[in-house]
Amino acid sequence: MTEPEIPRRPEGGRMRPEGARAVKPRDAATIILVRRDAAKPRVLMGKRNSGHDFMPNLWVFPGGRIDRADFRAPHATDLRPEVAAKFDRHIKPGRGRALAMAAIRETFEEAGLLLAKPAPPRPGVGPWREFLAQGAMADLEAMEIIARAVTPPMLAKRFDTWFLMADAERLISLDRQPDCGELEEIAWVDFDDALGLELPMVTRTMIKEAVLRLDDPERPSPYMRFGVKGHKLGHL
User: Fold this and answer.
1) The whole model's pTM is what?
2) Element (H, E) at 222
3) How far is it, in rounded angstroms, from Cα 63 to Cα 60?
4) What is the assigned CATH class of domain 36-235?
5) Nearest partner of 40 among 195, 208, 193, judged by Cα
């Protein structure tokens, strides 16, 4: 089995002040959306604004940290049993669903794209209000787990991020919703071209991991942790 390439240097954010204790990583999730309607598969990438203090001007997958509302947001479909079981082996039961919800919500907020199924319009709660106003409910069944990575402790901002993958055909539409999109620009690019963008090292690693996963759907999901003395690679 080919092991994933491990990022070996922190980047894309402010360093932790010397002598300060490492901050606790925040739970987060992101989606690798794969589009298969061309000769080569394409992946959705978005460029972060230059004003961000975490990974400014770099191309990333849409995603972000978990929100309280993600624990109670309605969904049209649930996680597949094997996906839910993989989450539950490593984190509290039910938290995996909330992480998947966070990834879908953040993809809507950052890229204006809905990984969802049509549903009757209903009032939303908190950050889900605009999403539900589109008449859609999250399609959790569409997602699989690719990997998990924890940001190095020398950075001022840290995330414990789950990388998920889904087919773009599960989106409500390929057209970006108006008045949505925190990312400066988005683009569908094939995997080779994606590797030519200005990327965080962990994103580069996950692009390569996604290619391997497309060739081998049963491939184990890597779990990468970065510490002061080096990195640790395990599997979920």
Assistant:
1) 0.86
2) strand 222-227
3) 9
4) alpha beta
5) 193
As a whole number, mean pLDDT of residues 123-137 equals 68
Q: What percent of the chain has pLDDT over 90?
A: 54
> What pLDDT score was predicted for residue 50?
52
Q: In the 8-state DSSP scheme, what is residue 212?
A: H
Of 155, 162, 201, residue with least CA distance to 7:
201
Give the Cα-Cα-Cα angle 198, 203, 205 (nearest 5 degrees): 115
Specify the 3-state DSSP secondary structure of 112: coil
Closest CA to 186 of 51, 36, 37, 31: 31
Note whether 162 and 156 are within 8 A (CB): no
Average pLDDT of the chain, as a whole number: 84
Instruction: Classify 13 as helix, strand or coil.
Output: strand
Domain ranges of the chain: 36-235
